[in-house]
Design a protein that fits this description.
This protein is α/β, with parallel strands linked by helices. 48% of the residues lie in helices and 20% in strands. Bound molecules: nicotinamide-adenine-dinucleotide. The site of nicotinamide-adenine-dinucleotide has 29 residues, from helix 2, helix 5, helix 6 and helix 7.
């Protein structure tokens, strides 16, 4: 078992990795907690959920919106949920984002916890207190920062996760290594195959070290006024590519990380050898490193990025593997660098 604590401004959040049955007792999960899950998980884990109060949403990013929230509020009222009720988000990142936002807003906020079931939700989405939904084409436009009471992570749930979803999550895990853990990245690059085995011996310690990277960063900057921005490595271009191509988030972030690594090299930081190692490691993982989209479309989409401020954007570069750097720059400047790396 492995435990970390997110020390939030309003409350602490206990992140536990281990057997879910043992942890449920240890964390004293209320027997009458209301589980929010999606239709996929409701079917696969019908036995696990059989004796639990459940609200089911339709799976997929397209359902992460205010219409789904509306449905959840109706169900909570129907179930007689009150200020003492406890909500648990049981699912991937879409479910944990929705469940956290529902719990944070229903009756001005009730207690909640997460049991993430996708790799992406385990290493990233469930940790750090960012909850919310998309608004029209704008991702995560409506939401808040509010820490769950606990996050219970058990690799057992990965057994049913489709392989492409596992690889999708691995992109965010590699991102963590690239921005904060050089040794971890080297170990991953040398033993990629064993990390791709969901039942392998590496997975528990991997989940422990991965979650620690995110917890440490959130503890130093919960509100994303500084260091937490480093978690956006690969996302500036990744988000635009995701929107335009319809690629899965992690797959688009993978191509975004390659672009960001090349720009980091262009800026005089990362060596060309390291850029190559990053690319090879992503390919070995089964992630894409190229895209076929017009440059101007990508830039147009980036202009709509909610992370930009005016004509400026905080570009996340790698000084070296394991060390990220926030570089404020004009979007035009970034565009020029982007065009340059595409030519070379
Ligand atoms: N809050 C944050 O800090 C944060 C960080 C990163 C990403 N996110 C959000 O996370 C979301 C992506 O999360 P995701 O990749 O988990 O997507 P997801 O929740 O859509 O899950 C992907 C698919 O896998 C299925 N699934 C999940 N766990 C399963 C399991 N154990 N067995 C079988 N099927 C399973 C789901 O039903 C879904 O169809 C995005 O909306 C993104 O914005 C949030």
């Amino acid at each position: 078992m492995c435990t970390h604590t997110v020390k939030g401004k309003i409350r602490n959040s206990i992140i536990s990795i281990g057997d879910h049955t043992e942890l449920a007792d240890k964390l004293a999960i209320p027997g009458d907690a209301i589980y929010i899950t999606d239709d996929n998980l409701a079917e696969i884990y019908s036995e696990f959920l059989a004796d639990k109060k459940t609200i089911m949403v339709e799976n997929g990013e397209k359902n992460k919106n205010l219409t789904t929230m509306d449905m959840i509020y109706d169900k909570l009222i129907e179930m007689g949920a009150d200020r003492r009720s406890f909500i648990i988000g049981f699912g991937g990142g879409v479910v944990t984002d929705i469940a956290g936002f529902a719990a944070s807003t229903y009756m001005r906020g009730i207690k909640f916890g997460f049991i993430p079931t996708s790799l992406l939700a385990m290493v990233d989405a469930s940790i750090g207190g960012k909850n919310g939904v998309n608004h029209r084409m704008y991702k995560n436009m409506i939401g808040n920062i509010n820490q769950p009471e606990f996050v219970l992570i058990d690799s057992y749930f990965l057994n049913t996760l489709p392989d492409d979803e596992y690889i999708n999550g691995m992109a965010e895990a590699i991102k963590h290594l690239l921005i904060a853990d050089k040794k971890g990245f080297e170990h991953y690059a040398e033993n990629t195959g064993s990390f791709l085995d969901k039942k392998g011996k590496e997975i528990s310690s991997f989940l422990c070290s991965q979650t620690k990277i995110k917890v440490d960063i959130v503890n130093r900057d919960e509100r994303e006024s500084g260091e937490r921005k480093k978690l956006n490595f690969g996302h500036t271009f990744g988000h635009a590519i995701e929107k335009l191509s319809g690629m899965k988030h992690g797959f688009a972030v993978s191509t975004g990380m390659v672009i960001a690594a090349k720009i980091s090299h262009k800026l005089g930081f990362l060596s060309s050898k390291d850029v190559e190692t990053i690319k090879t490691t992503l390919v070995k993982t089964g992630l894409p490193v190229n895209f076929e989209l017009p440059t101007n479309k990508i830039m147009e989409t980036m202009y709509k990025d909610k992370k930009k401020h005016g004509d400026n954007i905080d570009f996340i570069a790698l000084e070296q593997i394991g060390k990220a750097k926030i570089i404020p720059m004009k979007i035009e400047e970034l565009k020029e660098l982007f065009v340059e790396i595409l030519i070379n």
